[in-house]
Amino acid sequence: MLRQPVKLELRGITKSFPGVLANDHIDLVVEPGEVHVLLGENGAGKTTLMNILYGLYHPDEGEILVNGAPVKFQSPSDAIRMGIGMVHQHFMLIPVFTVAENVMLGSELTRPFGLLDRGRARREVQRLGQEFGLPVDPDALVSSLSVGAQQRVEIVKALYRQAGVLILDEPTAVLTPQETEELLRVMESLKHAGRSLVFITHKLKEAMRVADRITVLRGGRVVGSTVPAKSTEAQLAAMMVGRAIRLGVERPPAKPGAVVLEVEGLTVRDARGQVAVDDVSFQVRAGEIVTVAGVQGNGQTELIRAIMGLDPVAAGHITAAGRDVTTSSPRETLASGVGHVPEDRVRDGLVSDLSVAENLVLDTYYLPPFARGLVLEPDEIRRNADERIREFDIRTPSASVQAGTLSGGNQQRVVVAREFSRPISLLIASQPTRGLDVGSIEYIHERIVKLRDQGDAVLIVSSDLDEVLALGDRISVMYRGRMEGPFDSGSATREEIGLMMAGTGSEAASAPPDAGRP
Amino acid sequence: MSENPDQKPGRNRAAAARDVIQSVIAPQSSIWSSVLVVVLAFVTALVVSAVFIVVSDPNVIQAPDLLTALNVAWQDVSGAYGGLLTGALGDPSTIIAKLSSGDAKVAASAFYPLSETVVAAAPLVFTGLAVALGFRAGLFNIGGEGQVIAGGLAAGFVGFSVHGLTGFVELPLALLAGFLVGMLWGFIPGLLKARTGAHEVITTIMLNYVAIYLTYYFLNTTLFQRPGRTDPISKVVDSAAMLPSLAALNLRVHAGALLAVAVAVAVYFLLWRTTLGFEFRAVGANPDASRAAGIGVGRVIVVAMSLSGGLAGLAGANIILGVQYSVTPGFSSGLGFDGITVALLGRGNPVGVVAAALLFGGLRAGAVQMQAATSTPVDIVQVIEALVIMFVAAPALIRAIFRLRAVRGIGAPTVSPGWGG
Asked: Which of A83, A330, A334, A504 is the least buried, fewest Cβ under 10 Å from its Cβ?
C-alpha cells in the first residue's frame, strides 16, 4: 500500500517558546528506507522538532521538504497526507473503541449511505499485522490491551494511513524488555519494506542496535550526526550530556548489617481479587541494595503498595525498621523511617498542580519545622525547597512553579530529593529512573548507592534489567506473583535472570514457594 | 499502566472531573492576566446583552426609519445600563446632593444603592466560598442550595425558639446552628463519597430536594409555623438573634457583610496557611499521590465537604438573621447555584470570590433600579451573568476578540515534556 518512499528534509528549523529556545536551526535529512535515530536528553528539543514535523507546532523559521519539495503543515492532517505518521509517547487511542475502529478513526472507510465498512478495516488491520509482525486482534477493545499491544495499534494506524515516514516518539519508554525487542524487529521489517523511520530515544543500546544514522540533539541544537559503526555508547552519551559520563554504577562491595525489611509469606490480592503477590518472603539488610527484576505486571507493583500500606495484605507479615507495618497506614509506614519513590511519579509521586516547594514536603508538611500545630510555616517550606533544589540540582525557574511544569527528570529529582532527605532507614524505589535521561539516571544511581553506603537498606524494583544488575547487591526476580531469590549478584548471569523474568528460569515458578528460595 | 485495566474507566472519569475543576482554579496565566480576562469578559457580556435589550424592545423594530431606530436603541441600552449602574453604586450627583444636605438620614440614603449591593453580595460570598473550598479539594459541591436551606432553617429555629439570651450569645448560637446543620448537609455526601465512592454531584443535588421539601414540612408544624398563619411561614426570630443592621438609617446593610469578609479571610488562611488546607489542595489535585504521601484521602473528603456545607449554611443563616427574619419556602432563591457561578468567576480563590460576589451583588441590586427606570426586565441581568461566565470559561475567545497575546499558548509547554512529564 506504500505509495512511494519518502525522503524527508528539515532545514534550519527554529522554534521558541516563552523563555525557551526549543529548536535552534536544526537540519535533518531522513533518507528513504533508513532508521534515523534522534538521540537527546529530556528537554533537548526532540519532541518539539517532531511535533513541528507532524504539523502540531509551526516553526518560527526554517522549512520542511518532502521528496525535495517544500511543504507547509497547518495541522497533522496535512502531515498525514504527505505520508508522515506518528506514534506519540502518550497513545492517542480511544479506549472504548475496538482496535479496528481506532485504526480507521479519521480515515473511515464507508459504504453507501455513510455506513462504516468495519469489515474492510478489520481485514486491513490483520493484513498489516501479518506483513510487519504486528499481531493485534482487530476486534479487541483498546482498553483491554497491554501497553505494548496498544503501541502496535498506533503503528498499524499509521501504516493504515500509508505513512512513508514513521515517527516513533520514545516508544520504548513504556515497554518491557521483550516488547522492546519485538518493536525493534518490527522497525527493521518496516525499513526493509522501504519505509523510513525516525526513532526518538535516549536509550543508547537501542540507538546502536537499529540506527542507520544517529543525530544527537542537545539544548535545541544538533550537536553531531554519526553512524553506529563509527561511534561508541560512551561517545554518544558524552555528546548527549555535553560531558563525559559514566555508564554503569561505581559500587564498592556492600557491608550488610541488621535486617531492616522483612517480608514473610506475603500474599496480596489485586482489585479483581486475583492473587497478585503469592507467598513472597525476603529480607533487606542495612547497607545493601536488593533489586527486584521482572516484567511489568508480575506483582511488583502490588508488592510495593502492600509494603507501603497502600493496598491491604491478604496474608503474611511485613516488618520495616523494627516495626510490624503489616496493617499500618501509609503515613505510619512513611513515618517509621521508610522512604518511597513510587513507580508512577505523575500519578503517585507528585501533585503536579502544587508548587515544587509544596511537593518537597508532601509527606512531611505536618511535622515541625514545616508546621507548628495546624499552621504551616511557609518560610521553612521555602527554605527547605531552596536547599533541596541546590543539593539535588533540580532545574526549575523557582521553588514556587508548579511541579508539573518541570521535565520528567527534574520531577523525579523532586521526588528523590523529598524521600532521600527525610530521616529514613529503608528506601523503597520503584522504577526509579524510568523514562529519565542519561544524566539523571547517573545521578539517581549515585544517590542510591550513597544512601546504601550511609547504612540504609534499599529495595529497588525495576523492569530495566540493566538497572537491576547495575544496582543490586542481591537480585531477585518476580514472575506471576512469585519471587525467586534474592541471590548474590554474582551468582546469576544476565541470561539466567532474563529467563526467570520470562518464567522459564527454573522449576521454581511452578514448584512450591520454598523451593525457589536458595 | 497496564496492570489495572479494570480500574481505568472510573479513574479516567474521576480524573476528567478533576481536570475540569483544575482548569478553573489553576489558571495557566498570571493573576493580572486573569483579572483582565474577567473585565473584558464582562464588557463583552454587556455588549452582547445590549443586543438582547435592543431586540426585545418593539419600538426599535417599529421605528419609521433607521435613525429613529438607532436612537431608540441607544436610549434603551444607555437607560438600562445607566439604571444598572445607579442601582448598584448610586448616581454621583444625587450622592453629592444627599451628602451635603446636612441631615443624617438623607446623607445615609446616598449609600442606599451600595447597601443593596452589599446585602445581595454577602450570601453570595458564603456560597461562593463553599463551592470554591470544594473545588480546592477536588469536590464539586452543587448541593449549596440544600445546605443554604438547611442552615437557614436551623439558624431560624434557634433564632425564634431560644429566648432570654443577649445578642452576644444568641446571635453566635444561631449562626453556629446554621453552620453546623449546613455541615451536616455536606457531611452526608462527603461520607458517602469517602466510604462508597458515591459521586458528590449526584448525592448533593438529591439532598437539595430533601432540604426543600423538609422546609415545607417543618413550616407546617407548630414548632415552626407562625401562630395564626395557614401558609408556610415561620415565626420571627428574636431581635437578639438578628444580625445588627443600620436600619435606623433606612439601610438594609447588616453585619453579615462583615462576617462574610471575615470568613473569606479565614478560608484563605485555612487553604494556604494550615496543614488541613495543604491536604485539601493536595487531595484535590492528585488523590493518588496524596495517599501515597500518607494523607488520609477519605478523611479529607469528609472534612472538606462538611466545611463546604457549613459555609453554605452560613449563607442561609445570613439571609434569615440579616434580611428576612423568618423562614419561608424558597428563601434561598438559587443562592447555592449562584455560588457555583461566583466560585467559577472568582477562580476558586477567596479574594476572587469576594470580588465576584460584589460584582454579581451589584448587578442584582442594580437590576431592580434598572427595571424601575426602564422597561428592561430584571432577567437581563441573569443573561449578563451567564455570558460573563461563558466568556470567562473561554479565555481563548476573549483573548482572540481583544487580540491579547496568550501568556501561554495552548499546548505549548515551557519545557519540552519528557516521558510522562
From this structure: A504
> CATH code at A118?
3.40.50.300
Q: Is A345 part of a structural domain of the chain?
A: no
Domain map of chain B by residue range? 124-350
Contact A310 B291 (CB under 8 A): yes
A29 shares its domain with A137: yes
**Could you tell me which residues come within 8 angstroms of residue B187 by beta carbon, excluding any fewer than 6 positions away?**
B302, B305, B306, B309
Between chain A and chain B, how many beta carbons pairs sit less than 8 Å apart? 164
Report the number of distinct structural domains present in chain A: 3
In this structure, are A76 and A144 located in the same domain?
A: yes
Cell of A225: 550526526
Q: Which three cell numbers stand for residue B88?
A: 448598584
pLDDT in tens, chain B (421 residues): 333 333 333 445 566 666 667 766 665 567 777 788 888 888 898 999 899 888 888 888 888 888 888 888 898 888 888 888 988 888 888 888 888 888 888 888 888 899 999 999 999 999 999 999 999 999 999 999 999 999 999 999 999 998 888 878 999 999 999 999 999 999 999 999 999 999 999 999 999 999 999 999 999 998 999 998 888 999 999 999 999 988 777 888 889 999 999 999 999 999 999 999 999 999 999 999 999 999 999 999 999 999 999 999 999 999 999 999 999 998 998 999 999 989 988 888 999 999 999 999 999 888 888 888 777 788 888 888 888 888 877 777 777 777 765 544 333 333 333 333 2
Residue range(s) defining the domain that contains residue A455: 248-337+423-518
Q: Domain boundary residue among A223, A241, A259? A: A241
Q: Which of B4, B286, B416 sits opposite A43 (nearest CB)?
A: B416
Question: Which residue is closest to B282 within chain A, CA to CA?
Answer: A351
**Residue A161 shares a structural domain with residue A37:** yes
CB contact under 8 A, B276 and A409: no
Q: ipTM of this predicted complex?
A: 0.83
Residue A3 lies in a domain: no
Residues in Cβ contact with A265 at an 8 Å cutoff, skipping those fewer than 6 apart: A279, A280, A281, A315, A316, A317
C-alpha distances (whole Å) from A15 to each of A47, A200, A220, A406, B4 are 12, 18, 9, 19, 39
> Do A342 and B292 count as a contact with CB atoms less than 8 A apart?
yes
Indicate if A427 and A417 belong to the same structural domain: no
User: Cβ contact (<8 Å) for B22 and A353?
Assistant: yes
Which residue from B354, B388, B372 is spatially nearest to B117, judged by alpha carbons?
Answer: B354
Radius of gyration of chain A (CA): 24
Same domain, A257 and A307: yes
Give residues 274 to 333 of B whose Cβ lies within 8 Å of A: 274-278, 281-282, 285-286, 288-296
